Amino acid sequence: MNFEEFISQANNEYEQIQENLEEIDVLVKQSSAEVERLTQRNTEMTTWVSQLKIDTAPREDIKGGYDRLLDTQQRLFTMRGQLEKVQADQRNMQKMSKQLEGILRFSSDGAFTPPASSHGGNEEYNEVIQVIETEEMARQTLVRKMHDGPASSLSNFILQAEICEKLFDSDPDRARIELNTLKSAAALTFGKVKDFIFDLRPMMLDDLGVIPTLRSWTSSLEGKSGVDISLTTTGTDQRLESHIEVTIFRTVQELVNNAMTHGQATQIKTFLDITPNLVKCVVEDNGHGFDVDDSMVRDGSFGGIKTMRERMAMLDGTLEINSSSGQGTRVEFSIPIHSPIESTH
Asked: What is the mean pLDDT of residues 61-76?
């Protein structure tokens, strides 16, 4: 790249950053206003709940109050995190803007070069955007699962615990019933939290490897979902590099979940073959299927296809999909092994 091209690119990047700063400034103001509103709402709800009379208030009113308080606190927590992230992005862009402005202002002719009237696509910038969007989607999924699962259950725990506390003296029998209900709900929530942790990062993947982890996961999922899910393994049960084992597990997990969620499959078969030089995996289902080309044209990432293919490409692997409407789906992916770790036999 010669100097003129460098200056032209700097102009384009400067212009893009100014546009982004304008958008982020709006987001900061909107997020700040929402944080302020939710903070006030949280104060009002906390006061209201603290004044509830557990002995006389209807249970529905008590539960509704705690649910609204928890929802407000969760929204406030999420919005504060979003505000902090947007403010950090704003500071980074402002710093980049000053650096580019200095380069342009003191370029070879000693004058500031006006930003170009138009700018083309910036591949690196688009990749950064994609990474950020992927991270935000993951965070949103995490927050939604926490809110709908453990957080909601904890709200009920607080309610039941306070009811029990009030009933110990006046109605011991009812207090015991409430305690048993609380115990059962806690056990159920504990199971959900364990599943939640496993989905985030199964510890046995690090300890035992990808094959035992997949066996455990598919067996557990089959029992909970009622879907016929099988796993057949061939080759050597060897340990692989951590990033390869994670990729195998996450890809199979995503394909199986897609088959159940999108394809409404009742039977899913996974075949995994590990040789000293190659991992090959096939996931087949009897679901509804879909038009692969049409889906890729419409959104480019149906069921995570684009992400999975990019993940494979980074490991010099491949991913092929065969599917059509009403005919089920067959996905095959392969990853070369460059550095096998050890055999578990």
From this structure: 76
